[in-house]
Amino acid sequence: MTGVLRELWDNLREFVATVGAVALFFGRVLSQVPRALLRFRLVVEQVHNAGALSLVIIMTCGLFVGMVLGVLGYDVLQRFGSEEALGTAAALGLIKELGPVVTALLFAGRAGTALASELGLMRATDQLTAMEMMAVDPIRRVVAPRFIGGVIAMPLLTVIFIGVGIFGVQLVGVQQLGVDAASFWSQMRSSVGHEDIMEGVIKGCAFGVACSLVAVYEGFNATPTAEGVGRATTRTVVTSAVLTLILDYMLTVLML
Amino acid sequence: MSSSAASSQADAQTAQDSIVEVRDVHYSIGGRAIFSGLNLRIARGRITAIMGPSGTGKTTLLKLITGQIRPDKGQVLFDGIDVSHLSRTELYALRLRMGMLFQNGALLTDEDVFENVAFPLREHTDLPESLIRNMVLTKLQAVGLRGAAQLMPAELSGGMARRVALARAMATDPEVLIYDEPFTGLDPISMGMIVRLVRQMNYALGITSIVVSHDVEELSILADASFIIAGGKVAASGSFVELKDHESEIVHQFVNGLADGPVAFHYPAPDYYEQLLAGDA
User: Fold this and answer.
1) pLDDT at residue B16, rounded to an integer
2) Which residues of B173-204 are buried (b: 16+ CB within 10 A; e: fewer)?
3) Per the confidence metrics, is the pTM higher than 0.90?
4) Partner-chain contact B120 A133, CB within 8 Å
5) pLDDT band at residue B198 under the 50/70/90 scheme
6) Residue B1: pLDDT above 70?
7) ipTM of the modeled complex
8) Which residues of A touch B119 (CB under 8 A)?
9) Do B98 and A133 lie within an 8 Å CB cutoff?
């Protein structure tokens, strides 16, 4: 029994220590953000890496999520004879929930893992230590631009995901299943407000901060071995996914 | 003059002559003591070798000198400044006076050779591009790799990567160059080149070199003074000739490359026969 308690206590202590370390790391990254922003080229490069390179996967998944939503939405709504509401239902679902969450999960899998493994490998091959030895703060030169890149890219990707998703809903609902195009679009326009779009964008920003922070933290602090880098990459995906869903619930409740 | 005043003057004199001074340093990792009362002085303008069997903490000593880690007890002075009590900004300012060559070169893999050498210049100066270009080409010429400026690190051999790293370490004209295992895994030609470069850099530029290695032969040609670290302390110090005749068994074993001695060939294990018989039971 004491063994179990001891293990619980140890785990709790480790958890608190990790939260503290992440918070300190976040503080260090934030303190370097203004200086990193001055190096505009580095930031643009990272927005390209995290954003542009994730476009294909985001758009493909957005299209299919939209199409599934179109089929399922139509199936449910036509039971009540209100298939014209498909536009509203799908758009609200995509903007407020599916868009930000699925984008964040895909972002963690595509850009997050790339960030974590890149930083982990830089750690393992002494590149980060070499920078420190050259009196160049790797948080400023390497971590902050990547963090900013992720934070900028994530809401943009969310908006693109939502846009392509709505196109997918329309493709199936209007083009294939015959929902009236005029009522599809007009109902969507009249019932989706600015605050709904803001909710999606705020969630996108929050998930962007969370997923980018997890990726750079895990990569920067990876054990400098092949196994360590692998573990950091795995942890990036798992932690980002869990954190996204927890944050999603909290933000949804807050913005109701 | 009283004897205490004379000795303090002598101390001040030695402090002036030494650029790095390690005073009674204790350091342990995970409960295992790496250093227990380490003392050494590294002379200014000379090539000093730090040797010792694997696992004695040679690289740890470099990390202490460069402020990557802090000692549990004791002082590490770089030009009279206690490295272990500096803030990050102060430490970075001090590191501009040091250059370090890592065992694997630690080049930035996404940048070509030219950009690797230009990296510290771009980060620390606002020099115009034409001047940076000339400075980088000068450094690359010094290590014989001006022709390789456009190659990527993955296209370089181990020896070339280390020479590029040396050019990069020199880019900001440091006072001290620190080499971590510079000869490991090199063919004799590359090794000869690195030995030549270390000597040239040291005496042509009037800097101090600290070389951590266990390649006794190369260091015997290269070093003005050597320290052998074993058991958490300096086991012996002096010129290579003095070390060769040192009475300490561990120094004798190390310098002469003997397979058995105080550093046993066998890792501590239970009794051989008993263990074999236990398998039969």
Assistant:
1) 61
2) ebbbbbbbbbbeebeeebbebbbebbeebbee
3) no
4) no
5) confident
6) no
7) 0.81
8) 134, 136
9) yes
